[in-house]
Write a structure and sequence with these properties.
The chain is built from twelve helices and two strands; from the N terminus they run H-H-H-H-H-E-H-H-H-H-H-H-E-H. The protein is mostly helical.
């Protein structure tokens, strides 16, 4: 599938696309990894409530390192205007409520498919840990609140990443490759590896309190599985970004996934490397979802 938003591309300058991409990745990775090793990992591995709570603002700040990378690249190539105008060139624009709900809906659909497919991987779907004490109405309420957070406060937090990955890097690569799907895959891999220090330590796979739902995982295996997960998400998000001409729908998908991940993880008993949201079941769920997203995106081509 070819790109259809040439009018929104960053203007061509004497700086090569390779150099601009290198600047973006260098800033994004260096700042994120510095935060990981100096603050985030010591707090997350402290195994104390104080450390866990203190890690929240640190991780939120980390999410905006790709935006700083994007701004560095835009400054290098001499993009005109202030910060708001520069970011507008890479997709910071209002796509309308239907696209925001579409992004959030894709997150929900992928998670639902992940739960449905979990038994095929030998996982048991059922409440675990503290969720055993929660009634069904409260579970539903938690889901609703997670969804609302996904399209509000979580969306704002996720925008820090999306302005970089589905914004600046997407625009650079889609112009070079001419392919939304290939661009999404490459960006998704880079996005996953940007998380590598946290994932290597077990974040998303048991570090932080979910180990009681199944055996935790960490190390290179966790990094590889998480990167495969973000690669699949990256393709879906690239389709969203391309058709909506905005990074906000992918931020809504990202934010909703974050808002519901804890709940979904607590509904599956089994090894974390297999369980949703980011285990093999999660990859399977979003893989099944991809053809539907592709068909829908193709039908709305040119209408956004």
């Amino acid at each position: 599938m070819l790109s259809h938003h040439r009018k929104h591309l960053v203007p061509t300058t004497m700086a090569s696309a390779r150099l601009r991409l290198g600047i973006y990745l260098a800033v994004s990775y260096t700042l994120a990894y510095a935060i990981d090793f100096t603050l985030a990992l010591p707090l997350l591995t402290s195994k104390t409530l104080t450390g866990t709570l203190a890690a929240i603002p640190v991780l939120l700040a980390r999410m905006y390192t790709p935006t700083l990378g994007a701004l560095a690249g835009l400054q290098l190539e001499g993009a005109p205007g202030g910060i708001r105008e520069k970011l507008g060139r890479i997709g910071l624009r209002d796509p309308g409520p239907r696209w925001i709900l579409a992004g959030a809906g894709m997150a929900v659909a992928g998670l639902a498919l992940s739960l449905i497919l979990s038994p095929l991987l030998g996982l048991s779907v059922g409440r675990c840990g503290s969720l055993k004490l929660v009634s069904v109405p409260v579970l539903i309420l938690l889901g609703v609140l997670g969804f609302i957070a996904g399209i509000t406060v979580n969306l704002i937090a996720a925008l820090g990443e999306e302005l970089g990955w589905r914004g600046y890097m997407h625009v650079l690569l889609v112009r070079e490759t001419g392919s939304t799907l290939l661009t999404g895959l490459i960006v998704g891999v880079a996005w996953g590896l940007w998380h590598a220090p946290l994932i290597y330590a077990g974040y998303n796979y048991g570090l932080g309190g979910l180990a009681y739902c199944g055996a935790p995982s960490k190390g290179l295996t966790a990094v590889a599985v998480f990167t495969a997960f973000t690669a699949m998400l990256g393709v879906i998000m690239a389709l969203l970004r391309e058709r909506s001409q905005s990074v906000i729908p992918s931020a809504a998908m990202h934010g909703t996934l974050n808002g519901l991940s804890g709940l979904v993880a607590g509904l599956v008993v089994g090894p974390r490397i297999l369980a949703p949201p980011a285990g093999l079941a999660g990859i399977a769920g979003y893989t099944v979802l991809l053809p539907l997203v592709y068909v829908v995106a193709s039908r709305v081509e040119g209408k956004a």
